[in-house]
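Please fill in the sequence for the structure shown.

STRUCTURE ENCODING:
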């Protein structure tokens, strides 16, 4: 029966899967801590038996067992460390796929989400599991055992040990209360500063070209200075607390030795017992001291755990969608409305329209009319929508994305390419089918251009396709959309950066797709694309104001433009 704690989230359930490893870490910790009594017993034997008897053989045997127990203790500590390292690696392996998917879904739903933060959180949790902090928590419960042994040596020193342990524990709890919030604030400030720089690096060219570096640097300085101030205050408090804790710990050890010396003077214990009690006191307080020293990593790991838990709870692993036959590409939209965070009026307002299979539909409309949002809704990547988008009569959300993806070609308005070769980008980073890659490149008229590169299709394009021009990136993105002859293509301003030859290749490619029975939805501002259209839709202010066969809609638009503007008398 799992405790309620481990039923809360995917992260908690994964931790529960490692209960066996943690159990054995506890067993090995028990062995190591029991064997830590070895030096105490050795001292008692040397002072109490060997020195009185003067037997060298007894000293030899006692020393032999000392080394044997030390070896067993070292082996137990190595085993528990190895178990924790393996558990940390396995936890990462079990979660990295979930974290990867959840992070990108979170970014898809809100662009303010920091994708790299989730991977950093997973790393923090793994590193904490494999560091000394976890071992300190396994060793801390043995503090009462060492104190109990001190009681056997001297009840007075035993009560003194309890007092010192309570003081140490109180300092730990106080440190937690004082530093927890400051550590979190400092970490958040550092993340804000880092995110600011990362966001500006994505647009480095206009920043550099228009001399914006100095102005942006001033903004970053303010964030960075605030981050440094918070980090300085947090670290100053932590170091002050550690100094106080160290002072208290050293004082308590010396006071224990002094109290033991007083007991020896009064004849209530031997010198060997005095030294053994002092060693035990040091050992009893060591885990508590280590907890204080590793408190910051613990707080950071706990914060990362909570943050990652919320992420996986908000974006859990999706069950595989229903299996369907290969789509024909018919799109039906019913009552579709789309909104965006912080916007009062809807971007799309109750749209109902049908895009027949095997037809080319061109969508026209002024900037801001909702064309790109409609394209995102059709391919199922816009989160804030109501209504239905149906592909062959089935909601787009019901399709298994890995099954549906190869049948969709999507070219967004802002073309994003990825670090890799030209062939890998066209093949969507799946296994490269050379014949399909070349076919897609030829359709978009970029094949000859690719062959002029030194390594042809194996040319590395750099991060975001930085080595390519805007037109080349768009044509490469168009080839990626056409890879594998998908049944549905949604092309958002595919000719925005194309020259005359590129636009001619685009229209030829659309004509070929039309002959092959593919469904093409083409969003454009350029009238040349109308030549390939079967249907024409016109959008204004989030609505479809005209839709129908191309020539009929064009006739309506001409009549509207020829109509004289209404005049009003003054």
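FILLED IN BY: designer on duty
SEQUENCE:
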């Amino acid at each position: 029966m799992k405790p309620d704690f481990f039923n809360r989230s995917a992260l908690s359930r994964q931790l529960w899967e490692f209960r066996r490893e943690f159990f054995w870490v506890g067993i090995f910790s028990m062995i190591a801590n029991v064997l830590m009594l070895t030096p105490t017993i050795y001292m008692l034997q040397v002072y109490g038996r060997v020195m009185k008897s003067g037997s060298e053989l007894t000293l030899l045997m006692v020393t032999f067992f000392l080394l044997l127990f030390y070896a067993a203790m070292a082996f137990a500590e190595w085993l528990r460390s190895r178990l924790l390292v393996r558990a940390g690696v396995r936890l990462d392996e079990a979660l990295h796929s979930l974290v990867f998917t959840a992070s990108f879904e979170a970014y898809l739903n809100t662009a303010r989400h920091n994708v790299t933060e989730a991977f950093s959180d997973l790393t923090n949790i793994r590193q904490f599991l494999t560091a000394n902090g976890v071992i300190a928590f396994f060793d801390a419960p043995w503090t009462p055992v060492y104190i109990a042994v001190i009681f056997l040596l001297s009840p007075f020193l035993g009560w003194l040990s309890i007092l010192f342990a309570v003081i140490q524990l109180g300092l730990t709890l106080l440190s937690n209360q004082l530093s927890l919030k400051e550590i979190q604030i400092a970490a958040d400030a550092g993340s804000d500063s880092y995110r600011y720089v990362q966001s500006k690096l994505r647009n480095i060219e206009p920043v550099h070209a228009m001399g914006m570096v100095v102005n942006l640097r001033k903004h970053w300085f303010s964030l960075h200075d605030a981050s440094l101030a918070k980090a300085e205050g947090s670290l100053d408090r932590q170091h002050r607390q550690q100094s106080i804790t160290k002072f208290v710990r050293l004082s308590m050890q010396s006071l224990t030795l002094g109290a033991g010396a007083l007991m020896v003077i009064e004849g209530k214990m031997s010198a060997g017992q005095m030294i053994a009690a002092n060693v035990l006191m040091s050992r009893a307080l060591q885990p508590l001291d280590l907890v204080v020293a590793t408190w910051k990593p613990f707080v950071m790991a706990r914060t990362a755990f909570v943050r990652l838990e919320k992420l996986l709870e908000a974006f859990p692993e999706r069950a595989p969608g229903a299996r369907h036959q290969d789509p024909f590409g018919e799109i039906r939209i019913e009552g579709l409305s789309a909104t965006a965070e912080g916007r009062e009026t809807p971007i799309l307002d109750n749209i109902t329209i049908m895009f027949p299979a095997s037809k080319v539909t061109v969508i026209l409309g002024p900037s801001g009319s909702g064309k790109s949002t409609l394209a995102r809704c059709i391919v199922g990547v816009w989160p804030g929508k109501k209504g239905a988008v149906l592909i062959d009569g089935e909601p787009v959300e019901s399709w298994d994305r890995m099954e549906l993806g190869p049948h969709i070609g999507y070219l967004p308005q802002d073309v994003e390419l990825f670090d890799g070769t030209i062939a890998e980008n066209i093949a969507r980073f799946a296994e490269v089918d050379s014949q399909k890659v070349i076919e897609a490149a030829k359709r978009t008229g970029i094949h000859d251009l690719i062959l002029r590169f030194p390594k042809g299709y194996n040319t590395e394009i750099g991060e975001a396709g930085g080595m390519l021009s805007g037109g080349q990136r768009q044509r490469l993105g168009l080839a990626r959309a056409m890879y594998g002859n998908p049944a549905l293509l949604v092309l958002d301003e595919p000719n925005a950066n194309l020259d005359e030859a590129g636009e001619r290749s685009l229209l030829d490619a659309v004509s070929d797709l039309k002959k092959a029975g593919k469904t093409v939805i083409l969003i454009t501002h350029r009238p040349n694309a109308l030549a390939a259209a079967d249907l024409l839709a016109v959008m204004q202010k989030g609505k479809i104001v005209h839709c129908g066969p191309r020539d009929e809609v064009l006739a309506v638009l001409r009549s509207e433009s020829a109509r004289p503007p209404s005049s009003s008398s003054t």
